[in-house]
Each structure stands twice: as structure tokens, then as C-alpha cells.
Amino acid sequence: MKNFIHIKGLSKHFGDFVAVDKVNLEIGKGELFSILGGSGCGKSTLLRMLAGLEVPTSGSIEIDGTDITRMAPYDRPVNMMFQSYAIFPHMNVARNVGYGLRKDGVGKAEIEKRVDQILELVQLSEYKTRKPDQLSGGQRQRVALARALIKRPKVLLLDEPLAALDKKLRERTQFELMNIQYELGITFIVVTHDQEEAMTLSTRIAVMDKGRFQQVGTPKEVYEFPTNRFVANFIGTINTFEGVVTVVEEDKIQAYCDEAGETLTALGRQLVEVGQTIGVAVRPEKIFVSKERPDNQEDVCIQGVVDDLGYLGNRSLYRIKLGNGRIVQVSSQNRRRSVTRFLEWGDKVWISWTARSAVVLLD
Description:
This protein is 23% helix and 36% strand. The protein is α+β, with helices and mostly antiparallel strands. The strands form four sheets. A six-stranded mixed β-sheet has the order 6-7-8-3-9-10, with helices on both faces. The protein has a five-stranded antiparallel β-sheet with strand order 13-12-11-14-20, with no helix packed on it. A five-stranded antiparallel β-sheet has the order 15-19-16-17-18, with no helix packed on it. Helix 2 (93-103) crosses helix 3 and helix 3 packs across helix 4 (137-149). It is globular, with a radius of gyration of 25 Å. The two termini are 31 Å apart.
């Protein structure tokens, strides 16, 4: 994929506070790229600099070979969809969507043609004469999206685009957004704090904290192979055991973890040495729980007691207390219909996982 957006050494200071700290990023043409992070991490400030609503303290932004760092917002090949949608309440859907074209002096016939085309794309053709207060939250979201897309920007910036929607509508709209982006081929940059949203939408994700990118990669890379403890803990849930490295082989590391009372094995080629302190981490869904000890001697296998549990319909969550008091979280898919639980509070169980399921965390 050809790199389309180049961000080099970009920083933004507000007095002594550094909101964005010398970030570098390459985004390909046609990517649906997400910037993921918690409140105050700098993601919205970065988006505003791309839109031209904030002036960088240092660094540069280039889109399709043109340096836009100091370019006025209205001259940039960029449009932005705000979290609030900012739809005009006195205008119907068609006039809201065509507003930008009218401001640019586009002819009436051309406006009508393009409004009809974009409303068909976002599945709002039958609502073109309705006012915003006659629409659902998901429909208003699509009106805002259509208005942002109708001017055919090279890049569309979306600031928490689905935050105002309820869970089921948000999930459905994610796929609609992906389909629209695919059909148009426009580069989308989404800012969000919602991990599931970023994982579902994105071709790649940048995880941001304290003004810097902690990891950039595909959703699978970021989830399955976090590069540090922040990313591992921020994306989903993870159990981390502190340990001391005892064996280093070409593609395998062993560490004695006092918290587990075991020597744990993880696959990887990290540059570690015998005697070094590391974290050995495993996701809850990678752990198997059973009342009988598993037969596979190569798996990590530890005994514990069910300390707490929760039923979530499609899966059950268990908190397993080990002999030393350490709590391990386990997620188990509910594959069979039953009114009785597989496990109850106080049950003695075995938890196990393979070396392939564990990841080494260095910092």
C-alpha cells in the first residue's frame, strides 16, 4: 500500500504541557486507520492538527505529496466529522448534506445529483425531506457522514464518530462505515477510545499514550503481540506474571514466576538474558479451565479455586484464586445451552494454557 499521509516529528505544546510529542506516522492511501487512546492522550489534538484547527509547535504533515502543515483548514483536501455531528436543525436532510457544495458555489443541478448519490450510498434516500429531529441517532450519524463525504475529500477525519449511539446500533454502524469507506476508497482516520470499535473498523491502529504512539500495527498484531505493558493492558484484559528468565532458546523463553508458583514458557525472540526480570502474559480466552487435570504435559497447568464468576450469555468469566492468593481471569465460551453452571463458587479447578498463547513483556 502506497504511503499517502506522512507525519514527521509532529508536536503540540500548550504552555508547558506537551499534548503531542514528536510523533511520526505513515498512512496508506485508502486505509481505515484508527488512533486509539484514553482521555488526554493527545489523539484529538493530533486530529485537529490534521484538520488545520490547531497549529503544530513543530514537525510537518504531508498529504499526497503536498505539505499542508501551515495550510488553512478550508484549503486542505480534508474534511472532518465531529462527535456532535453539528447538523443544522432547521434544514432537512438534503439541504444539510448539500450545504458545503452550496457554500462553494456549485450549481443547483450538480448539487441535487451529488446529494442523491451520497444519500443512496448511506441508505438515506427516502429521508431526504425529513428534519434532523425526525431521525434516529444512527440516521443523524449518517447525515453527518454524507455531508462530510459529499465534497469528496482525500482524507476524512472522524472524531469519536459512534460514541453517541447505543451498543447494538454502534455495532451495526461500524460495518456500514467500513462498507462506505471501501466503496469510496477515501482514506479514513478515526479517533476513538473504544477498543472494540478500533479493532473492528481498522486496517491498522496506533495506540497512543501521553502524546506518543506506543504501538502501530494491525488489530491482530496489537492484540496478540503487544510490544509493552501499556498496550497489553490497554487493549482487552490480560494476566501478567512477573518472573526471572531461566532459559533463553532461539524461539522460546522460560521464566520462573513466583506469582504462579511455576516456570512459565513463552514463544518469542526478544532480546532477553538469563536473570532478567520480565512479564509473562496470557489473555483470559487463551486459558482453559477444567475440573480434571489436563493430560498434555507440555501445557502450563496450575490448580486453583473459583473465587468469582459471571455469566454474560455467550461466555462466562471466572476469577480463579491460586494457592498463593493470586487471581487469574479466565474467559470461557458457552458452547452448550444449559440452565446449570459448569462451575460454581469454591470449585477446585485446573487452569492451563500453551506456550504459544503467552507473550513476553519487557517494559
